Amino acid sequence: MKNAKFGTKAVHAGQEVDPLTGALLSPLYMTSTYCWDQETRERYLSGDKEGIYTYGRSRNPNQNELQEKIAALEGAERCLVTASGMAAISLAVLNAAHSGDHVIAYKTIYSGSFKLFTQIFEEFKIEVSFVEDFSDETIAKVMQPNTKVLYAETVANPTMTVLDIDAFAACAKKNNLVSIVDSTFTTPYMVRPLEHGVDVVVHSTTKYLNGHGDLIGGAIVGKSSYIDKIRSSIYQELGPVPSPFSCWLMLRGMKTLHLRMRQHCENALVVAKWLEANDKIESVEYPGLESHPNFELSKRLFGEAGSGGMISFIVKGGLDKATKFADNVEIAKYCVSLGDCDTMIQQPPLQTHGMLKPEVRRAMGIEDGLVRLSVGIEDVEDIINSLESALSLI
Ligand SMILES: Cc1ncc(COP(=O)(O)O)c(C=O)c1O
Prior knowledge:
The protein is an alpha/beta fold. It folds into two domains: 6-254, Aspartate Aminotransferase, domain 2 (3-Layer(aba) Sandwich); 257-392, Aspartate Aminotransferase, domain 1, CATH 3.90.1150.10. Helices cover 40% and strands 15% of the residues. It has helices at 6-12, 38-45, 61-74, 85-94, 111-123, 136-142, 165-174, 187-190, 224-238, 244-254, 257-276, 295-302, 318-327, 358-363, 380-392, and strands at residues 78-82, 102-106, 127-131, 147-153, 178-182, 200-204, 218-222, 281-285, 310-315, 333-334, 344-346, 370-374. The protein has a seven-stranded mixed sheet, with helices on both faces. A five-stranded mixed sheet has the order 8-9-12-11-10. The longest helix is centred in the C-terminal third of the chain and has 20 residues, at 257-276. The radius of gyration is 21 Å and the shape is globular. It starts with 5 loop residues before the first helix and ends with a helix. Pyridoxal-5'-phosphate binds next to α4.
């Protein structure tokens, strides 16, 4: 299946007929421990650990299958899945940056990552500098002898700034840093950052990769040397292993990744154009719009795939008008998270980034009237009708 196309890999990669029963899909292995007979014990002790399971905190068969699927889609040597996206980000960074080290990150990132990098890492004595860009000039200003990691999101949450992944990876190589990108918004359907020279990709699989809003999960992909080191050290002992059931659900969700992403991208472009033409909307941030500053970059990186399912826009009249509008979009549930089949709406200044001080939020580019829409895979006419009725109320 090595040369198979993306959709074929999404359906088949990692999947093997169950040797015991012939079941097409893997059974769910809900067990915490695995029994060894004498032969297994001797094999394990001789160093041949292939196919031997020990304890559910280390790994489980459903997890292995899922890791193979994600690695195949990302074109990675290895994948390690975790119990949440935040666990994936924490482990990926902590594998390279230890107490006394320094990290450089893009200024706009998911608020949970921002909190991790500021409050939690501060306690760990890991310093983080936030930058506007990854130009030589900017990096020279913040670079230190103890800098270990360069970090950014492929498309920044929630401002929709697209990362020039090639330039980012080149910057890391030049400065001997580990480059880590969060590709949650893009998924391997839109871009495979490892092919652009990035060292490590992290995902909140809670979002598009699973796509059905029924679990929390994360993934780290990259070279075997990097991932195996995480698995044998901090992963094993911090214990963020996902449950076999979450992995099983993920495997089911990922079979339709290419179909869902195609529909998310198609719908979002139509919705973004419609919003841009509406006089109650001040501005729309969607990389697929010609007016977006990263339109050309988005075409270069994402090609025919489209520009994703996420749109951020500012409603004229500030926070109150934005709230009244967001409360009344019938098709879209008012909730955090993104990437589900269902359209979802949220206000970053009140929800995802609400815990940040207003000045910190604004420095990230998050205005009070900002609304974030995760465009679902419903019929796009219904999404637009719902947006239109809600806008008519303000
Ligand atoms: C871009 C991005 N990365 C990481 C996360 C964290 O993922 P999780 O909630 O699965 O821990 C989120 C959550 O919203 C996110 O939007």
